[in-house]
Amino acid sequence: MTIAPFQTIERGRRDKEQRRQCLIDAATAVFAERGYDCATTREIAERAGCAEGLIHRYFNGKRGLLLAILESRAEQVVQDFVTALPDRDTVEDEVEQILLWHLDTMWERRDFMRVAVSQAAIDSEIGRTINEGIHNERVRLTAGKLRRHQQAKRIRPDVDAEATAQAIAGLGFAMGFSFQVSLGQDRGLARRITLAGAAALSRGISRRLPS
Fold first, then answer.
1. What is the pLDDT of residues 119-143, one digit of tens each?
2. Helix (H) or strand (E) holding 107
3. Low-confidence spans in the chain with pLDDT less than 50
4. Quick count: other Cβ atoms within 10 Å of Cβ 97?
5. In the chain, what's the furthest Cα-to-Cα distance?
6. Which residues, listed in sequence order, are joined to residue 206 by a DSSP beta bridge?
7. Looking at residue 16, what is its pLDDT?
8. pLDDT the model gives residue 7
9. What are the residues whose beta carbons fall under 8 Å from the beta carbon of 36, sequence distance 6 or more?
10. What is d(CA 41, CA 64) in angstroms, rounded to the nearest whole number?
11. In this predicted structure, what is the pLDDT of residue 10?
12. What is the H or E stretch that residue 34 is in?
């Protein structure tokens, strides 16, 4: 007698979580294909196979859906970063792979990024969500890698790992999104500039061995 209600609650919770995730996945695709302004909650609901009313119930509308997508992306950043970026033995290799990761992932997700960045420019809450989640996670993980090199005496002890990680994230965004996506510049040129920037930054923070 006491088991059935619990099972019903658990099943209901799982169903809700599944529908919620389906709506997030559908909205991500529709926003990328049609842009934020042209996307409709009806189209998103149809793509998800859910009732349109669930968007308002779970997310309070289309804007709430975008915020939910950005929050879920912050969680995905950690997994992607750890999986794609193994620890490197040199500072230059470490910085280079982080910057190239920015270059590649922002290109792969360029359609959705256009939506997120354009909305962040006019909606401060969306901007804060991107900063507090996606951006801060990238900076935190990058700073952790820099501190590992600092402990191994490959980076000077006076280098501010947090500030340097912010600089790396800033350069990654500038080249990954602004240069190759917004400005439509050649991706080969973007890669050469990124590699040059990685080399210069690495030289600047590396500990110089006695000659």
1. 999 999 999 999 988 999 999 999 9
2. helix 91-108
3. 1-4, 6-11
4. 17
5. 79
6. 155
7. 81
8. 45
9. 62, 66, 115, 118, 119
10. 11
11. 47
12. helix 3-34
Query: What does the pLDDT read at residue 78?
Result: 86
Give residue 12's pLDDT: 54
Tokens of 110: 């360029």
Rounded Cα gap, residues 153 and 98, in angstroms: 20
- Amino acid letter, 107: W
What is d(CA 49, CA 64) in angstroms, rounded to the nearest whole number? 19
Residue type, 11: R
What is the DSSP secondary-structure string of the chain?
--HHHHHHHHHHHHHHHHHHHHHHHHHHHHHHHH-TTT--HHHHHHHHTS-THHHHHHHSSHHHHHHHHHHHHHHHHHHHHHHH----SSHHHHHHHHHHHHHHHHHHTHHHHHHHHHHHHH-HHHHHHHIIIIIHHHHHHHHHHHHHHHHTTSB-TT--HHHHHHHHHHHHHIIIIIIIIIS---HHHHHHHHHHHHHHHHHHHBPPPP-
Of the candidates 110, 20, 9, the residue with the CA atom closest to the CA atom of residue 60: 20
CA distances to 63, 79, 91, 198 from 191, in Å: 34, 24, 18, 10
What pLDDT does 9 receive? 37
Q: Which residues are bridge partners to 155 per DSSP?
A: 206
Which tokens sit at 22? Answer: 């389906």
